[in-house]
Structure formats: C-alpha cells, structure tokens
Write a structure and sequence with these properties.
The chain is mainly β. It is built from no helices and 11 strands. The strands form 2 sheets. Strands 2, 4, 5, 6, 9, 10 and 11 form a 7-stranded mixed sheet that branches. A 4-stranded antiparallel sheet has the order 1-3-8-7, with no helix packed on it. The chain is globular.
C-alpha cells in the first residue's frame, strides 16, 4: 500500500510560481508511474502531468504545457510539479497519484493510489 502526501500549495499572484511536492511511502517508489491531477470547485478532476517510473518520459495537459514541469527523485521517493506563470484558471486542489507499471497515463482510472490534495490559489 502506497501513501502519498502532497505539500507546497498556497496563495500566489498571477504570473507567480509554486513547486508542489508529493512524498511517497509504503512501496517501491521507483516501480510507480506518477501523475498530477487537479480539481477546481464544481468541475471534474482533470489531468495535469505524468511521468514514467524512470523519468524518461513526461506528458502534459495542453493547458499547462510550457508552464509546468513534472520531475521525480527516486532516491527521495518524491515527485515534484514546478508551476510557473500561474494563471487564475490554475486555481484548484492538486492531487498526486500513482500506479505500478510502465508508461504514463492521463486517465485517473488508471491510478491506484491518491494523495489528499493541496490547495493552489492564484489571485489576480
């Protein structure tokens, strides 16, 4: 059983940056593909970014491409989401998620483990 704990959320102004972290425990982190999703009030949860177990491949939603970067440090059992040039529409609860296997996925149904989420608010 993998436990995921996100941190790094907060309030930031338009154009600012934040780095989210997701610490994993309870499993062999390097065997898991990782993803970030977000959910804004009254909206469906949506895919943000994903990374393979080896960090050899990353995948982004069009809405964040060029502004967000996903990375991981398998020695620290941590995945990161660097968010730059933030916009009001990035305001949401951000969740990290994991599934054991190759590749990446933008489908939330493929992920077996989820964190509790961290709030990101971008003010204008």
């Amino acid at each position: 059983q993998v436990q995921l704990v996100e941190s790094g959320g907060g309030l930031v102004q338009v154009g600012g940056s934040l780095r989210l972290s997701c610490a994993a425990s309870g499993g062999t982190f390097s065997r898991y593909a990782m993803g970030w999703f977000r959910q804004a009030p009254e909206k469906e949860r949506e895919f943000v970014a994903a990374i393979t177990w080896s960090a050899g491949h990353t995948y982004y939603a069009d809405s964040v491409k060029g502004r967000f970067t996903i990375s991981r440090d398998n020695a620290k059992n941590t995945v990161y989401l660097q968010m730059n040039n933030l916009k009001p529409e990035d305001t949401a609860v951000y969740y990290c998620a994991a599934f054991q296997g190759w590749g990446t996925s933008s489908d939330a149904k493929d992920y077996d483990y989820w964190g509790q989420g961290t709030q990101v608010t971008v003010s204008s």
